[in-house]
Structure formats: structure tokens, C-alpha cells
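I hope you will forgive my troubling you with a question about protein structure. The matter concerns a single protein, recorded as an amino acid sequence and a row of C-alpha cells. Please examine both parts with care and let me know of anything in them that strikes you as inconsistent. Thank you for your consideration; the sequence and its C-alpha cells are set out here:
***
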Amino acid sequence: MKIYKYLFGVVVAFFALTSCEETLDLEPRGEALTAGDALNSASAYESLAAKVYAGLILGGQEGGDGNADISGIDGGFSNYLRLYWKHTELSSDEALIAWDDGTIKDFQRHTWTDNNEFIRAMYSRINYQIALANDFLRNSTEANLDENGIPAGERENIRAYREEARFLRAYSYYHGMDLFGSMPFKDENSEPNEAASLITRADLFDYIEGELLAIEGTIAPARTNGYGRADQAAVWMTLAKIYLNAEVYTGTPRYADVVDYTTRVINAGYSIDTSAPYENLFLADNDSNGSQNEFIWTLNFDGQRTQTFGGTTFLTHAPVGGDMDPANFGINGGWFGIRTTPQFVELFPGEENSADGRELFFSTNQTKEIANEAQFTQGFAIAKYKNVDVNGNQGSDATGDFVDIDFPVYRLADAYLMYAEAVLRGGGGSAAEAVNYVNILRQRAYGNNGSNITEADLDLDFIIDERGRELYWETHRRQDLIRFNRFTSNYAWAWKGNVPTGTTTPEFRRLYPIPAEQLNLNDNLVQNPGY
């Protein structure tokens, strides 16, 4: 069940959410939660837990991102997934955008500053998510349940939601650590009206790791929770992610731990249907067409119940333009926005004529080279997210505005590739098993036509390219390029450094700046070097 899609509509009755852009005290207004009979039933706590999930999916309190959570920026623009995608993909070789919305092109040019409104919104959105989780945890202690008269027999689900809220908080802190390094820190025990303290990147790594290890055995076992709810495997994948990048975050590699935790995920019962097309993973019925067997954790979108201009609605509309027919994508029109660079195209043998089924380029009347960023027809388009089912039927929103495509935060293919990389980096494990995992993905991609690799083919250069081919536009690329030392130096792509052919950029751009507004509001914060 897409359980949280049905809960978002009742959340507003329990939350009066504060504007988040202007202050680091990003606490939901407590009086709305604790006054009167607001929390006198188990269903009220379920609604509050739903809001913590909803913060990753919706930009505001009303349909179409109305009554936005973050002020000073359009609700659709401030959608968590849309912002995170821009930070991780537009800054890489996988995507660039034609629009001139504010400072959006600064991402692809590597010219952002601490006054970039999208960076400011991402920083606020992360802290807002953490505040939502803190607020739920603060209001769902056993003492609070006693005070609000929640019967003992109705507390089991609330306790389960507490574990999930701790996971969701760690997940957003992980994004903060990855994008910004140090972060303002608060947990459920912090005083809401006090300025947040500073936590360094290394200390934040320890905190995230500690939280995930603490809930590993108490959150729902892998593959037993409702579809879209976090479980033990989501915890394992997040641990594997921070361990894979631990050398970047802390200076100390943790590749043996990557092998350990990806192995746990791989052995948890997820599966890949090598006979099903790769593109099925990104269709409107990806919750039921077999793709869900590969998904470890998803952000669930519904064209009728989660109407947002961010999320997969953005990822479906924004790449459509030129000669592309919107009807083939189950939408009412394209936004003529995002496409990819020639360097990413070249990862696929044969480029737009590749035998690799993961190559979903649209090149009709699109040039490969990009002399003008603002021209949508310069740069190959990508037809990855489609609001149609396996039979070509449009998603549930008859208008064609909003989509039903669930976003796979984590899927088994990523675990396979992480395992293989960790083996190559000295984390132990089995090289033969790593090759087997990679070949499962290639069998799906090529249709079992002899594309398998051998141990001699498996090296780090192959892995970074294969990760691009398998996981593009799924918010992994910036992190991967940094880990492989190719984000700022050693690799150039179109318009990187604000040069049409691309150039290297300074190393300090491996971190985004702390927004200038937030530095002025909290003396505890410290700007990242270079800004």
C-alpha cells in the first residue's frame, strides 16, 4: 500500500508550520500540537508521523505546493526532492537546465555563492525536516502518551513511528553532512528557542552512525513495513552510503563496513527481474509492475493525493520539450528544461544507438553539443520518468499535471554496485560475487546478449561509469564524482566552470556554502572555506 499517500490530507489539522527560511529555529509551532485534544488519539500521532514523511514529498500544506513550508521561494521550487536533485545532478555531468530562474544555472556552472536562493532553500528544508522529526519525538514519549491518555494497547504503532522518525532525521542529517559538511544541530532534547549549536562533519558522521546503529534492531525488519515506510534495509543502505563516503567525510575509509551492510541488504530478499525492461522502474505503476521487488525505500507520489510540482512531477515534465510528444509521457505538456551533457552521453557505447537498454536519450532534432545553455534542443533529452503504466495508460491525474511515479531512494542495483566498488577498494568480500552482481544488471540492460564482464574488466574506472549508466538522475552522481576525485578536477563537462566545453573548478566546491542569512542569524555557524 502507498500508505502515506492517504494520510497527508489530514495532517494540516495537527500542524501550524512556521516559515523556515529566515531562522534556524525551525520548530513547528508546538501550541498546535499540544493544545486541547489535538493528540488524544493514536490516529493523531499517525498523522504527525505522516507529516515527517510528507516533508520529503510535498512543498506545502495544500495541493500544488500551496501554503508553502519554506517562505521566500515558490512551494514547488522548495520541494525537498526537487531541491536535492538539483544540488546533486545539475552540479554534475548528468544534467543541465535551460531556465533562467534566479541563480539556477549556477549549479551547472559551479559558480554558486552563499546568496544562492536554492542553496538557502535546501539548507532550510533539511533543517525543517529535522525539526519535524524532533517535534514528533518530543511529543510521543511515553510520558506524553500517558498525559494524552493513549491506551497502552494502542502504543505499538506510535513506538514504531518513533523509530522511523529517528531514521528520517538521520537521513536528512546525512544530506546536510554530504552537501554542507558542518550543520546546526538539534535533537528532541534541545530547547526549541535556543540557537542551534554547530556540529562538525566528523562529529555529525558519528551521530548519524550512532542513530542508525541504535535503531537497526528496533525498526521494522527488512521488507515487513508498509510500502514507502522506512525499515531495517533502509537503515542498512544509509549506513552503507555513509561508510562508502567515509573517507570524504572523516578521512578514514570504511569499505569493509560497506561490504558488510550491502551484503545484509542483498541477502534480505530483494530481487531484479532481468527479463523486465529497465524503464519499468520509472513508470507510473512502478509500485506494482514488479519494480517494487527491487526497491528498498521509495518516496511515494500520487497524481491525485500528493499534488506537487516537485518530486517526480518535475522529473517527468521538465525533461520534455522540442519534438518530444508529452502524451508518450502521460503528461499535458513539457517544461523544456533539463537534459544531459555530451560527456554523459559518451558513457554509453554507441551513444544514442547503444544496445544498452538503460540509454533513454531522445535525440531527434536535439544536438549533442551545447553552445547555448538556454536552448532546450541543445543537449540530448532524457526520457527516463514516464507517467504511464506498462501498457501505456496515463497515470491517475486526468489533467496530466501530476504523476504517480514513486522515486526509488534506494534500490538493489545500487547495493550491488556499492558492494563491487568496496571490494575493489580493499573492503574484503568476493570479486567473483561482485562480477556476478554487475552482470545481473547488465543482463537486464542488454537482454542477455553477451554483455557480461569478467574480473579482468572490473576496475574503479568501470564502476564509476557503470554507476552513471545504471543510476543516472537518481541523486547519486555528485557524491560519486567527489568520491572518485572527478567533481572539481580531473574531469570536465559542458558548462562546468561557466565554459562551454567545461573546465576544472576549485576544490572548495566539493561543499556548498552555509547561506549568508543563516550565518548572520546564528553566531555558532562557521562558513565553509572558499566562500
Q: What stands out?
A: The two ends are 46 Å apart (CA to CA). Strands lie at 60-62, 66-68, 96-97, 183-185, 197-199, 295-299, 338-339, 361-362, 381-382, 407-411. Residues 156-180 form the longest helix (25 residues).
